[in-house]
Design goal:
heterodimer; A: alpha/beta; Rossmann fold; 2 domains; globular; B: 310 residues; alpha+beta; Alpha-Beta Plaits; four-stranded mixed β-sheet; four-stranded antiparallel β-sheet; 10 strands; 32% helix
Chain lengths: 342, 310
C-alpha cells in the first residue's frame, strides 16, 4: 500500500477540540473507530498479514464495522462483517452494503448479542479463506496503540491535563489514550464510563439500552490497572445528557458521548482548578430515531446539573436502572483484585 | 547595470581568510523515529546545545588542491570543505584549514559535527556567502555518517540526523534550563560504528508523544515538560545503548530535585536537567554526583536570559 492510498482518510480520523468550560475540553470525532481500524490495517499491511486485494473478516455491530467498511472501500479490500439481527438496523446495514461490505446477520432470539455464535462464524470464514485477516479489535494490541495520536493532539492543543474521561466498549480508546497521556503526565486521573448490565467492571450481565458502550464480555484490550474511577450511567441519563450536549453546546453526538459528557462535566464543576478532557466517539445521525426522537423541546434539560446532581457512591455490583448513576473508586486495580474484595 | 559591489574587487582578494564557528552539544533531549509530513518514518533528534564547547575553523584558500587540515585527523572537515567548495563552484579547489576546538572527542558532544559545520561556515565565509541552514546540514550529512542539528544553532528543531532533513521546526525557544553534565563511566561510543536502533511499534508511538510534549514544552517555556521528555527518551534508550549506572542516575535526579535526566543517545555523557534559578538543586545534584563517583562534571545554561529580564 503506497503513502497516498494510506493517507486517503487520514483527516477523517482526527477529532475537533471543543472547549465547553474553562477547564473542560471534549474531543469530538466524526467516527473515532477509523483511527484503530486504519492503524490495524497499516500494521497488517506492513507485516504481510493483509495483502493487496485481500479479505478482512470481523465481528461487529457498530461503528468499528463502518470504519472498516470505509477503509476497505478506499483501499480496495473485500470485507465480511458478522453481526446479529438484534444489533443491526436496516439503515446501518444498508450503509455497510453500499460500501461493498458483505454483512452476515446471525439470528439472536434472546437479544444477548450472540458473541459466541458470531465468533464461530468468523472462525469458519477464516478457515475458508486462509489469507483472510481478522483485525480482532478486542484483543489486537494495535487498537489501544493507535490512540497515541489522540494523546499527542491533547498534548499539543491543550497541554497539561489532569483528568481523562472516556466511555468504554472495546477498551481500546481509554486504555490507549490513558497509557500514552500518562507518558507525558504521570499523575493523570482516568475515569471510565460504563453502563448498567455491562460486565466490564465486574457487574453481572444484563440487557443494555445504551448503544456502543459497555460489553457482555471483558476484552483483553481493557487495561483495568489504568483506571482510577468507574462511573455507571443508565440509558435515560445518557440520552438526556446527549440532548443537553446538543442544546447547550451545539454538539451533535451519540449517547456514549453524552454519558462521558455527563460525568466529565460533573468533575469539571466539582474541581474547577483541574483540567478535564473527554472523548466523543461518534456523531448523532445513527440515533435520530432513538435518542433524538423527542416530541417537545421543553423536555430537554439544558444542563447536566438539572439531569442529575451526581452519582451515588457504589459498592461494587450496583443494581442500577436506566435512571441511575453510580461511581466506584477503582484505584488502578486489576479486575481480579477488585472482585476478590467483594 | 549598477555595480552590486560597493567595494572594489581587488579588496576582496583571493587570499581572504574565511572563519566559522559552531558550538557542540550535550547529547539529546529526545532521539528516536518520527513520521514526516508524508507519514514516512525518519530517525530524528532534539539536541541539547552546549555553548561552553565550541569549534573554530579558519580557511585559507588556494587555487590548487588539495585541502589540508590541522590537526591532521580532522578528515571529515576536509571532506566538508571540499564539498562546500564544489557547491560554491569557485575557481578555488584547495586551501589550508585550521580547526581549534575545546570539544572533547568521542563522548557525544558532537565534536566532529561541530568541526564540520564550523568548516562549512568558514568556507562559505571566505566566499562571502550565507548558506541556508538546510544546505549546511546536508553537506554535513554528506561528510559524515550521522549528523545533527548543530547547523540550526539555538532554533529547536526535530532533525533527521540520517537524512539531514528537518522533521519539525518547533515554535519558540528552548525553555531556560541548567544542565549538569557528567561522564556515565561507560566506554566511549564510535558514532560511525554504532548500529542504528530498531524500534517496536509501541516505541514509535511513544516517540510521537514525546515529540508532542517537546513541542508543547518549547512553545510554552515549560522546563519541567522538557525534563520529562528527556527522562522518558533516556529510559527508552536503555534498551539500545544501556548506561550501566542508569538507575543510580535516575535516583540522583530524584533526590536533587532535577526535572529529569538527559543522555547522549549514542555517547557516554548524561546530564541532570534543572530549571533556571534552581541553584540549591543544582548544587545538590553536583554534590551527590561527586559522592557517587561520577566524573567530568560540567555545568552550563541552555538559553539563559539576562537575570534582569527574568
Amino acid at each position: 500500500m503506497n503513502g497516498f492510498a494510506r493517507s486517503k482518510l487520514q483527516e477523517y480520523e482526527s477529532p475537533r477540540v471543543a472547549r465547553l468550560r474553562p477547564n473542560l475540553w471534549g474531543l469530538a470525532f466524526s467516527l473515532m473507530k477509523l483511527l484503530p481500524a486504519r492503524f490495524m490495517l497499516d500494521r497488517a499491511e506492513e507485516t504481510g498479514e493483509l495483502r493487496a486485494g485481500g479479505h478482512i473478516v470481523e465481528t461487529t455491530s457498530g461503528t468499528f464495522g463502518l470504519a472498516l467498511a470505509m477503509l476497505a472501500a478506499a483501499r480496495q479490500y473485500r470485507l465480511s462483517l458478522v453481526t446479529a439481527d438484534s444489533l443491526v438496523d436496516d439503515v446501518f446495514e444498508h450503509r455497510l452494503k453500499l460500501l461493498g461490505a458483505t454483512v452476515v446477520v446471525t439470528e439472536d432470539p434472546n437479544k444477548s448479542g450472540n458473541q459466541r455464535v458470531r465468533l464461530d462464524v468468523v472462525r469458519t470464514l477464516l478457515s475458508q479463506d486462509l489469507t483472510a485477516f481478522w483485525p480482532n479489535q478486542y484483543a489486537n494490541a494495535h487498537n489501544p496503540m493507535s490512540y497515541a495520536s489522540v494523546a499527542s493532539l491533547i498534548i499539543r492543543k491543550i497541554g497539561r491535563v489532569d483528568r481523562l474521561v472516556a466511555s468504554v466498549g472495546s477498551g481500546g480508546s481509554i486504555s490507549g489514550t490513558a497509557h500514552f497521556l500518562r507518558t507525558a503526565f504521570p499523575e493523570l486521573e482516568v475515569v471510565a464510563v460504563d453502563t448498567y448490565g455491562s460486565v466490564l467492571f465486574g457487574q453481572p450481565p444484563a440487557p443494555r439500552r445504551v448503544r456502543g458502550m459497555g460489553n457482555s464480555i471483558v476484552p483483553e484490550n481493557l487495561r483495568h490497572d489504568l483506571i482510577d474511577h468507574v462511573h455507571w450511567v443508565g440509558a435515560d441519563l445518557a440520552h438526556q445528557a446527549t440532548l443537553a450536549l446538543y442544546r447547550a453546546h451545539g454538539i451533535f453526538a451519540g449517547p456514549t458521548s453524552g454519558a462521558a459528557f455527563l460525568v466529565a462535566d460533573w468533575f469539571a464543576r466539582r474541581d474547577p482548578q483541574l483540567k478535564t478532557v473527554f472523548l466523543l466517539p461518534d456523531e448523532g445521525y445513527r440515533y435520530l430515531s432513538t435518542v433524538y426522537a423527542i416530541d417537545q423541546l421543553g423536555d430537554v434539560n439544558l444542563s447536566t446539573e438539572s439531569i442529575s446532581p451526581g452519582p451515588l457512591i457504589a459498592q461494587l455490583g450496583p443494581a442500577g436502572n436506566d435512571a441511575d448513576w453510580s461511581s466506584f473508586v477503582w484505584a488502578r486495580r486489576s479486575l481480579a483484585q477488585v472482585m476478590s474484595r467483594t | 547595470m549598477r555595480n552590486r559591489r560597493p567595494i572594489s574587487d581587488e579588496s576582496i582578494s583571493s587570499t581572504k581568510v574565511g572563519v566559522g564557528r559552531c558550538c557542540g552539544h550535550h547529547g539529546e533531549f529526545l532521539q528516536g523515529v518520527f513520521a514526516d509530513d508524508v507519514h514516512h518514518l525518519k530517525r530524528g533528534l532534539l539536541t541539547v546545545p552546549c555553548p561552553i564547547y565550541r569549534s573554530h575553523a579558519s580557511f585559507w584558500p588556494r587555487e590548487t588542491g588539495p585541502v589540508t587540515v590541522r590537526p591532521a585527523w580532522c578528515t571529515k572537515a576536509v571532506k566538508a570543505a571540499e564539498l562546500t567548495l564544489k557547491l560554491i563552484k569557485e575557481s578555488i579547489i584547495g586551501g589550508d584549514l585550521t580547526i581549534d576546538s575545546n570539544i572533547p572527542p568521542g563522548s557525544g558532544f558532537g565534536s566532529s559535527t561541530a568541526d564540520v559545520i564550523a568548516t562549512i561556515r568558514a568556507v562559505a565565509d571566505f566566499a562571502q556567502l550565507v548558506l541556508p541552514r538546510d544546505t549546511v546540514s546536508r553537506i554535513a550529512v554528506d561528510a559524515e555518517i550521522a549528523s545533527d542539528s548543530l547547523a540550526y544553532g539555538d532554533q529547536p528543531v526535530l532533525f533527521g540526523h540520517r537524512s539531514g532533513a528537518l522533521i519539525e521546526t518547533f515554535e519558540g525557544d528552548y525553555p531556560r534550563l541548567v544542565i549538569v553534565g557528567f561522564d556515565t563511566g561507560d566506554p566511549p561510543v564510535a558514532t560511525d560504528e554504532f548500529a542504528p536502533a530498531r524500534y517496536s511499534p509501541e516505541e514509535i508511538e511513544t516517540f510521537s508523544i514525546l515529540r508532542a510534549l517537546a513541542a508543547r514544552a518549547i512553545r510554552s517555556g515549560d522546563a519541567a515538560a522538557l525534563g520529562r521528555v528527556s527522562s522518558v527518551s533516556a529510559e527508552m534508550n536503555q534498551r539500545h545503548l544501556p548506561i550501566s549506572r542508569f538507575a543510580d542516575i535516575v535516583k540522583i535526579s530524584g533526590i536533587s530535585g532535577a526535572l529529569g535526566v538527559q543522555v547522549a543517545h549514542s555517547g557516554n555523557v548524561a546530564g541532570l536537567v534543572f530549571g533556571a534559578g534552581e541553584r540549591d538543586q543544582v548544587d545538590a545534584g553536583r554534590r551527590i554526583l561527586h559522592e557517587e563517583g561520577f566524573g567530568k562534571v560540567i555545568e552550563f545554561d541552555v538559553f539563559a536570559a539576562p537575570r534582569a529580564w527574568s
